[in-house]
Amino acid sequence: MSEPRKPVKQIHLAAHFPGVNNTTVWSDPQAGSHIEFSSFAHFARTAERAKFDFLFLAEGLRLREQGGQIYDLDVVGRPDTFTILSALAAVTERLGLTGTINSTFNEPYEVARQFASLDHLSDGRAAWNVVTSWDAFTGENFRRGGFLPQEERYSRAKEFLATANELFDSWHGDEIVADPATGTFLSDAKAGAFVHQGQHFDIEGQFNVPGSPQGRPVIFQAGDSEEGREFAAAGADAIFSRYATLKEGQAFYTDVKGRLARHGRTPDQLLILPAATFVLGDTDADAAELAREVRRQQVSGATALKHLEFVWNRDLSGYDPDGPLPDIDPDLGEHTLARGRAQVRMYRDPLATAREWRELAAANKWSIRDLVIETGNRQAFVGSAETVAHTINEFVQADASDGFILVPHITPGGLDVFADTVVPLLQERGVFRTEYEGTTLRDHLGLDRPAARSGSAAHGERAVAS
């Protein structure tokens, strides 16, 4: 007796507006502004035309520095997330709107009110990527510097999210009774009442934004650490992943989905969505050649040296980027050279990384620039539209992901070619929608509307966070 065939999964696609960073070829003549609203609008409309689930914005709370100077790729800055997403809600109709907002330096009432408002303005299309801040450098903007030891930041984030959910749900579960003559609530209506007492927050009052069209904004999480994976399994609707190979993706998928049962959740209640860059060409060979060209445009000689400084923690400006790697070892002291750079955290054992890179460079006869290009900037999907569509579908059907968040190297028009060539092929295969079937982001992602909380917190009695 043959085994039953596994159901064909539907692919989830989203688009990340990249801003100016190491994936962007800002020097390309096709590159436009990264701060003018017309760029955001073009990008969002392309994603919606292609029937993507959502648009995603990352967050930058401080201009990054290297060697005491503003890192040159950040000079345009980052406009405010809520301002952009609220404006995009007016020029789109179905596309989800996802913003990254920090839980370390903000307060639950403020953030919950902003997301609940965005969810109303967009008719239920808002999502929140909950992140923590890891460095005192960023905290200086908030007069908090090294606020909270790093090991306590997930504790704060967990309670922050739980508190925000109490606020989102504070209008649920009660019969809202209004005086028909005046339109005001009767005295026994408890809508919006909340009380929260915990380690990090002790607040009570009346939440002033009614329940939104999708119940609560969708919750995303981006951490890859043990704490981050567990945080996502406990309360997120989707988790980003940095694993872009099939084998690594399957291992991450299995690990995170396997954590859900102990939180009383099922595998379909958490989506896994890796970020993915891409380069398309008329043929696979054309795409491969273009990909090499793009990588060299992304990594100038100066950029390569700065990337190496993330590991070496030394000023390497005197080295030739087209020459060999430094023969001196990394400085293992406090990392003060690159400030506000997430990449610094990736290299937890600088000596081992330096040793591995020297071996790679020697075996392949790579210069510093060659090494940075080959180890840090390979695109996830390279090929013809047919090849890329096949590969994306293969990853999803093999449970390496539930879809992808696409990051083009040209802003804002870099998504257009994917929308025009790859999406129709996925639609022909029957693995991606041809039309939106619902109106909210939860509809797009196949997520149920969260049940209204019951019990003390929803009725204004004291809720104590463990």
In short:
Belongs to the NtaA/SnaA/DszA monooxygenase family. With 466 residues, the chain is an alpha/beta fold.
How would you describe this structure to a colleague?
- The protein is an alpha/beta fold.
- The protein folds into 2 domains: 12-278 and 381-464, TIM Barrel (Alpha-Beta Barrel), CATH 3.20.20.30; 300-376, no CATH class.
- It is built from 15 helices and 16 strands.
- The protein has an 8-stranded parallel barrel, surrounded by 6 helices. Strands 4-3-13 form a 3-stranded antiparallel sheet.
- Helix 3 (108-121) crosses helix 5 and helix 9 (301-312) crosses helix 12 (368-376).
- It starts with 11 loop residues before the first strand and ends with a strand.
- Residues 454-466 have low confidence and may be disordered.
Poorly predicted tracts of residues: 454-466
CATH superfamily annotation of the largest domain? Luciferase-like domain
| SSE class | alpha/beta
Number of strands: 16
Number of domains in the coordinates?
Answer: 2
What's the number of helices?
15
Radius of gyration using CA atoms only: 23 Å
Q: Which terms would index this structure?
A:
alpha/beta, 16 strands, TIM Barrel, 466 residues, oxidoreductase, disordered C terminus, 14% strand, flavoprotein, oxidoreductase activity, acting on paired donors, with incorporation or reduction of molecular oxygen, eight-stranded parallel beta barrel, three-stranded antiparallel beta sheet, FMN, 2 domains
Give the topology.
Blueprint: E1 12-16, H1 37-49, E2 54-57, E3 65-66, E4 69-70, H2 81-89, E5 96-102, H3 108-121, E6 126-131, H4 136-139, H5 150-169, E7 193-197, E8 202-206, E9 218-221, H6 226-235, E10 238-241, H7 246-258, E11 271-276, E12 278-280, H8 284-298, H9 301-312, E13 338-339, H10 343-346, H11 350-364, H12 368-376, E14 381-383, H13 385-397, E15 403-406, H14 416-428, H15 441-445, E16 463-464
Parallel strand pairs: 1-2, 1-15, 2-5, 5-6, 6-9, 7-16, 9-10, 10-11, 11-15, 12-14
Antiparallel strand pairs: 3-4, 3-13, 7-8
Helix pairs in contact: 2-3, 3-5, 9-12, 13-14
